[in-house]
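Hi R.,

As promised, here are both runs. First protein below:
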Amino acid sequence: MSVATPLQLTIRPLTVRDNPAIARVIRHVSAEFGLTADKGYTVADPNLDTLYEVYSKPGHAYWVIEHEGEVVGGGGVAPLQCSEPDICELQKMYFLAQARGQGLAKKLALQALDFAREQGFRRCYLETTASLTQAIALYERLGFEHIDGPLGCTGHVDCEVRMLKNL
């Protein structure tokens, strides 16, 4: 009988060298869950191949999950566009299958929320889709509450699940 051991995964800040790898992860996971560009999901983001440049701005941060030198996931936080200045958005949380189920999404989300508090944000918003049931359950456990309408101008027209958390 063999026993599966957890992978040795590390969370670290995104670097410019990670741009192609995290874009591949996001595209792969999006395809896996049917999150297509024509519906306004992250794969339609014109900045997908230059995330380091996006998240290098003040009030922005992005971390990648790495396994043996390979980027297998990531997530970040940034000010919510077209909204009140005290609201940030949890963004681009994507993990390849081998990085799921090990508590990394929770760890990364908590790190992002701590960063947001340090930046002076008082609320954190997110958008997702109903098919991502595990992600929604995690966000609920983290204290995000479902809200009716969208906030800001994210461009994610098919993200019908919207959640908000007081920081």
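And here is the second one, sequence first, then its structure tokens:
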Amino acid sequence: MRPVRDRRREAAALYEYPEHLRSEIDTLPRAPGVYTFHGPQGDVLPLYIGTSVDIRGRVMDHFRTPEEAMLLRQARRISHVRTAGDIGAQLLETQMIKAQSPLYNRRLRSTTRQFSLQLHRGKVTVVKSAEIDPARALVVYGLYSSSRSAMSALRRIADDQRLCYTLIGIERGVAGRPCFRAMLKQCAGACHGAETLGDHEERLRAALEDRQVSAWPWRGPVALEERGADMRQYHVVLDWQYLGSADNLTAARRIRGTTGQFDRDAYRILQVPILGGMHKIVQLAA
């Protein structure tokens, strides 16, 4: 199979402005939301789903990109959904991509695997989301798509902070004896007494702190209010999972849903808006 880069070059060489889509631009607003390129199969299998605070401007960027010639040739129409702002657009985009699996989207695909780091008595272990709920766990760090990526992150932290691979559980060693990295001056020496175990664990906790997954701060669902220039939405969230949006609180209270596997994409989008105090948060009946 030819490399993706070669196929992209060939597509770019065949680029022609998508005249058949020119009329579609007229229907697109200069406003936040989600847009979808539909191919011959229509709504059954979308080609691409994207988001922008300026839908029309972003779609026009696609038209100017020769590397997307294949997508543009296959597209038959472009639909869109307005949102009040960027938060709602991002949430809707992730929801639509996971539900519809568009052909050209590579990120935000639904995943059944989720891993985090957990610290206990100075040692770090990789845990699966099926074994622990990151929405409620207070000592879980990071959200990773594989055990390998979680361990790679831990190694980077250990390297940056001169932590001992043996003590944190990356490698095996003999108690009281210098590890290999200590002999290379890459470990501060907690493995052989040059640093106290307490100081070592404190440095480890400090290094992990900014990766800590925040526990869900309410007992039930909440509505995050987002206001735009001409639109207002209430995004309903429970256990860091997005359940849906409504244009008023009465409709928001009718939104129901059950939480399942922790959604790291929703968490990434929502953590700062919900905890940052910049948006109105309304508690809904559980």
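A quick note on the second one: The longest strand covers residues 232-238. Let me know what you think.

Best,
J.
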